[in-house]
Amino acid sequence: MLESAQMTSSDRGRMFTTEQLRLSPVHERLQLGVVRSEPGVAGLSMPLTDDIKGVYAGTVHGGMLATFADAACAACLWGIYDFGPQFTVTTDIHVRYSCSARSAWSSARQNAL
To answer: Where do the Thioesterase domain residues begin and end (predicted)?
Structure first.
């Protein structure tokens, strides 16, 4: 696997991959995948499995959805900033839920502003 310390400016502009996303054990456990990657844009997928179910039938744990959104935000930064050996870290996140995910797969699309 590609270690974060090996991700340097020479990687800038390359596509962000599922392998890189899953360097995080949390992202691996959630089975997050990259379905679209270009500088400033990321599309991710996450299967709605028993591991991420909420307390009530047919719901997904809100923390899992927030983690999914957070990963999409980080992935969209790939290729537009030169972090060198650094990596992105979320310092603040606010999520409002309008409804629960209800299909077998969930997807996220993020654009850098």
So the answer is: 58-98
